[in-house]
């Protein structure tokens, strides 16, 4: 049974956990932005918590970008004049 953990090991574990949280938050933002590009709400992200729901999320991620104004802010492409 592990009863002694050195301070250096604990600090490294904390740093690694913080980096993992930082990366996961970035991926969450990227996924929601991509869902908005395909004209879906960010709430569709939560379908990934049910079994095989990530397959639906993957399907939404590979859809082409909707080339029209979307409901969540400015459109990525500039209008041609």
Automatic annotation (TrEMBL):
Q: Which InterPro entries match?
A: DUF805 (IPR008523)
Pfam family name, one: DUF805
Transmembrane regions listed in the UniProt entry: 12-31, 43-62
GO cellular component terms attached to this protein's record: membrane
What are the protein's UniProt keywords?
Membrane, Transmembrane, Transmembrane helix
Report the protein name in the record: DUF805 domain-containing protein
């Amino acid at each position: 049974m592990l009863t002694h953990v050195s301070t250096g090991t604990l600090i490294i574990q904390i740093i690694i956990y913080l980096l993992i949280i930082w990366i996961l938050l970035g991926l969450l933002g990227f996924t929601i932005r991509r869902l908005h590009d395909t004209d879906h709400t960010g709430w569709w992200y939560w379908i990934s918590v049910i079994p095989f729901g990530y397959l639906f999320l993957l399907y939404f991620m590979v859809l082409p970008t909707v080339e029209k104004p979307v409901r969540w802010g400015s459109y990525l492409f500039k209008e041609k004049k």
